[in-house]
Amino acid sequence: MALEKPYKDVPGTTIFDSEMARKGYHLNQFCMSLMKAENRARFKADEHAYLSEWPMSEEQKQAVLGRDYNGMLALGGNIYFLAKIFSSDGKSFQYAAALMTGMSEEDYKAMMVSGGRSPDGNRYIGENK
Amino acid sequence: MARITAGIGASHVPLIGRAIDTGDTQSDYWKPLFDGFDFTTKWIAEEQPDVIFLVYNDHATAFSLDMVPTFAIGCAEEFAPADEGFGPRPVPMVEGAPDLAWHVAQSVIQQDFDLTIVNKMDVDHGLTVPLSLMYGQPKKWPVKVIPFAVNVVVYPTPSGRRCYNLGKAIRNAVDSFDEDLNVQIWGTGGMSHQLQGPRAGLINQEWDKRFLDRLADKPEELADIAHVEYIRETGSEGIEMVMWLVMRGALGDKVTELHRHYHVPASNTAVGHIVLESQS
Fold first, then answer.
1. Could you tell me the CATH number of the domain that includes residue A67?
2. Among B12, B59, B103, B193, which one carries the catalytic annotation?
3. pLDDT for B77
């Protein structure tokens, strides 16, 4: 019997469950390696070469190179692991969050200061706004 | 005898730590947030707890995908602030309370909760930001800390009900420790926030406030909240609020609410804070 996943109908959200954790194992462990300064330096010096040391899919590698965070989430990345990539780039959580929503950082920040994104219209996929 | 006298709920947003570390707490952006902790910093200076049982989550810092413990209790003599990618926070070493920690581990495991015993672990912002919020910037933390890490990152995460019942088991454990200690339990994380995907930035003030409204007197209702409700209503990272239920469970049936504060935003997050005194 398949496990229940009642969260599949929440829009714009990827839950890091067993399926995603398996899919993204090597991607996330690559991210963890960036916690060490020497690894960050090697990654920065030659991203292609560093990524080739990890048994990740070609799609995952391309998503890392393109800093496509929504793509990485879909390929099994978890946001706390992916944070090691944007931290290595000197970027903040708010920068990454804005990027994933397709907003400018300025607009995203203004949205947060005015109370954040409302849950209304954002609870179910296909919900009428 | 040791006793759990009070509980604190508080968010643990990393940027709050940065605001403290860089002396930016009085700026227009941060002042309203920090003002809400004035009560607690004074209160805790009078209470002088001996040990904080600090419930938090690790953010892919000490635990990678190599090992994912659901509940991990820190039994070491000390815990170093972690380097989360740009150097460790400039905060003191965290001194453990290994006698009490091992006692709690033994007692709670015998009450059928399977804890992972951790003897070496760096602690990230999830643990150090709440300490900074309550104690400011001392040279040495004036309290011992038992780090208690809950997995809220990799699903399946424990249910709210399980966390609440675990809190009760922790209370039993502390009650049976012979040394005379004033122990507080802190539940950290939350409140509503989502850090990932096109729905990032979700905040649900109404839901958060109803959670705070019920924490003192209707914890049973909160314990029944399903994971999918946290995700849908409070964003994917709102699930951290199950850690507040460990705290509430450990305070006994009757509590008095001493203080409450709610502020939006800190970075991407709705910040909640509550102080509860145990009356049992």
1. 1.10.700.10
2. B193
3. 98
Q: How far apart are the first and last CA of chain B?
A: 15
A64 within some domain: yes
What's the predicted TM-score (pTM) here? 0.97
The values of phi and psi at residue B49, to 5°, are: -60, 150
Quote the minimal CA–CA distance from A9 to chain B in Å: 9
Write down the pLDDT at residue A2.
Answer: 75
Q: Please identify which residue in the block is written with the tokens 């040279």.
A: B139
- Identify which of B37, B261, B249, B223 has the alpha carbon closest to the alpha carbon of residue B130: B37
Taking the C-alpha atoms of residue B62 and residue A100, their distance in angstroms, rounded to an integer, is 26
Q: Model confidence at B21, in pLDDT bands (50, 70, 90)?
A: very high
Q: Are residues B264 and A115, on separate chains, in Cβ contact within 8 Å?
A: yes
| Mean pLDDT confidence for A18-43 | 96
- Number of domains into which chain A is organized: 1
A contact residues 49-108, partner B, Cβ 8 Å cutoff: 69-70, 73, 78-81, 83-84, 87-88, 92-94, 96-98, 100-102, 108
Domain boundaries, given as residue ranges, for chain B: 3-200+209-266
For residue A95, being part of any structural domain is answered with no
Tens-place pLDDT, residues B121-165: 999 999 999 999 999 999 999 999 999 999 999 999 999 999 999
**What's the CA gap between B68 and B93, in Å, rounded?**
24
Boundaries of domain holding A57: 18-89
ipTM of the complex model: 0.96
Please check whether residue A108 lies inside any domain of the structure: no
Query: Smallest Cβ distance to A93: which of B197, B268, B270?
Result: B268
- Asked whether the beta carbons of residue A29 and residue B65 sit closer than 8 angstroms, the reply is yes
Classify residue A83: in a domain, yes or no: yes
Residue B84 contacts A, CB cutoff 8 Å: yes
Question: Which pLDDT belongs to residue B183?
Answer: 98
Q: B193 catalytic, yes or no?
A: yes
CATH architecture of residue range(s) B3-200+209-266 = 3-Layer(aba) Sandwich (3.40)
